[in-house]
Amino acid sequence: MLRTGDLTAGYHRDTPVLHGIDLDLTAVTVHAIVGPNGAGKTTLLHTLAGHLRPTAGTVLCDGRDISGWRPTHAARTGVALAPQGRRLWPSLTVAEHLTVTRPARHHRGPAFGIDEVLNLFPALAGRLHHRGHQLSGGEQQMLTIARALRTAPRLLLADEPTEGLAPTVAGQVADVLRRLPQRGVTVLVTLPHIRAAATLADSVHVLTAGRLGQPLDAGSGQAERLIRDHLTLTSPRAE
Ligand SMILES: Nc1ncnc2c1ncn2[C@@H]1O[C@H](COP(=O)(O)OP(=O)(O)OP(=O)(O)O)[C@@H](O)[C@H]1O
Description:
Elements: E1 2-9, E2 18-25, E3 30-34, H1 41-48, E4 56-61, E5 64-65, H2 71-77, E6 79-82, H3 94-100, H4 114-120, H5 122-125, H6 137-149, E7 155-159, H7 167-179, E8 186-191, H8 194-200, E9 203-208, E10 211-212, E11 216-217, H9 222-228
Parallel strand pairs: 3-8, 3-9, 6-7, 7-8
Antiparallel strand pairs: 1-2, 1-4, 4-5, 9-10, 9-11
The chain binds adenosine-5'-triphosphate.
Adenosine-5'-triphosphate (ATP) is lined by residues 11, 17, 35, 37-43, 84.
Family: Belongs to the ABC transporter superfamily.
GO biological process, one term: L-amino acid transport
Domain ABC transporter: 2-234
């Protein structure tokens, strides 16, 4: 669906955070961006979601240049962001989060009904009347993704969705993301560690200081080789 060409973006025109990013998200699979703190992962996702305007380069959506689109336009086109830090509405219940978020009128992505997102995240079904701030970290993350799915996305941008979660809960979240391409949703997920990315994604890009490496095909063992060659960015034991 989305492809960037030589994309440069940042918060100040004279100090770009992202440099010449070429990213191809046309395959309906799980794509991962891996990089250390400050590499620019969030900046990239925010640029694709229309929260930041690129300073150079292109963002093509279905072949059309939509560089500098607004977040509402991105959402209408089928791009949904599940942000880092979750950003739930603290005074709304789980049920309210899921009912106030709806697909755009002429959406082209798959519609996710409330029953379907509760099937994906059964933990939320028992928490329908709890408010955002009453949920555990894992439940908040699940709700963040569930809310994004309610917009009927064609592309889900998930920013460090397993951050701070217990391994079993992180595994539940990863399982859902892994299954989304079967429903027609392309996933771009950011993760701090390459080992987790190689397990979850079909292709893995390493982002270092705002520069993106060539995609590694997780299935071909390239990512595993990268780990073995000690190019991993942080200790895999920390995952
Ligand atoms: N709102 C902002 N204004 C100015 N600079 C920012 C802003 N947000 C991030 N930055 C800077 O942009 C660079 C990339 O940050 P970004 O949050 O995109 O990295 P990241 O890879 O997502 O890291 P993390 O895993 O810590 O979130 C950092 O140098 C950061 O200080």
